[in-house]
Amino acid sequence: MVAPLGCLPQAAERLDNDVSRLFDNEIVVDVERLNVDSASFVQMETLGEVGAQILATVAERGKQHNRVTGSGGMLLGRVARVGSRVAGRASVGERVASLVSLTLTPLHLERVVAVDLARHQVEVIGQAVLFESSAFARLPADLPETVALAALDVAGAAPQVARMVKSGDRVLVLGCGGKSGLLCSSAARRAGASVVVGVERSEAAATAARRLGACHQVVVADAADAVAVAGMVLAAAGGEVDFAVSCVNVPDAEMGAILATRDGGTIYFFSMSTSFTKAALGAEGISRDVTMVIGNGYAPHHAEATLALLHDDPALRSLFLERFG
Ligand code: NAP
User: What would the pLDDT profile of 14-43 be if each residue is shown by its tens digit?
Assistant: First the structure.
């Protein structure tokens, strides 16, 4: 039973994760791996052992819904049972990755087998329920599953950038060396951006972004240092940008993006660490007329588009293979 009663799953305090009963419109998946949302994983790392925290959250809430970041992640597994009303959606034995958040996915965990600190993935034994409305992807044959899982976790990012960036735009990508940052930089360049400026805080991540080659310039700065970031971005882009996307996994990146974006421009806050109040009140505070878009994780055909981008961009693919393969 969901608690509180009548609440939709994402907002619920607790979900019913009893998978012994199969409803006719549900799919039960034997879960092998969780791809934990980056903001959530990093937040848990600051507190200690990630596996124990995941077990505790799932035991308490019936889902992996981080109380601090409010975010979840997604899962990889094998279809175990398919309800009669959704019989055509999946076949028993198929390997699938969920494309809906773990914050709304009923999950029962028997145990955590291993925590993969580098990939922000966790090997588990458990079961999950996919609703009739829950999108999922079949895993591609041409990529290691850990790579596909990493890309599909942020599948909404690049397709949204592709449809928002106009030819000739000046673009800023905060966190350009991370998963979504690399994908968004590549998508922006392919959409015809005249200048793409990336920001990363470490040389290692900046080097990865430079290897991708999608950014015209990558500057090393702390995205939370708004004034410094804006100054460096304006210098690198030759003025304020038309479009900015925030792909960092830490709080306080709102003002750097807002200061660097022109009046009439657009900022896509893909980052789960974004604060609505900081963004809304911060833009108001400096009278900046920007359109701010919440990072909806869904766009039609986002999984296919993201996998196609990985397929078509050899540098992107090789970075993902190195990091997540
Ligand atoms: P990721 O791979 O961990 O990348 C984040 C990048 O940001 C890393 O390269 C990181 O550098 C960099 N970074 C961290 N702090 C920074 C700072 N202060 N200044 C500059 N760069 C900084 O994360 P991801 O998986 O792409 O996810 C990015 C964000 O999207 C996260 O907030 C995640 O929760 C969110 N997300 C949103 C959705 C959605 O539906 N909207 C879905 C999935 C994920 P280091 O490696 O040096 O730390």
Answer: 999 999 988 999 999 999 999 999 999 999
- Does the beta carbon of 247 lie inside 6 Å of ligand 1? yes
Nearest to 272 by CA among 55, 60, 42: 42
Is the minimum distance from the CB of 128 to ligand 1 under 6 angstroms?
no
C-beta separation of 266 from 239 below 8 A: no
136 lines ligand 1 (CB under 6 A): no
Say yes or no to pLDDT of 1 above 70.
no
Tell me how far apart the alpha carbons of residues 160 and 127 are, in angstroms, rounded to a whole number: 31
Query: Residue 94 C-alpha to ligand 1 middle, in angstroms?
Result: 30
pLDDT, tens only, 164-173: 999 999 999 9
The residue whose C-alpha atom lies closest to atom 43 belonging to ligand 1 is 154
Q: b/e per residue, 157-186, with b = 16+ CB within 10 A?
A: bbbbbbebbeeebbbbbbbbbbbbbbbbbb
Question: Does residue 172 have its Cβ closer than 6 Å to ligand 1?
Answer: no
Residue 22 is predicted with a pLDDT of: 84
Binding site membership of 207 for ligand 1 (Cβ less than 6 Å): no
Q: Which of 317, 298, 299, 297 is nearest to 307 (CA)?
A: 317
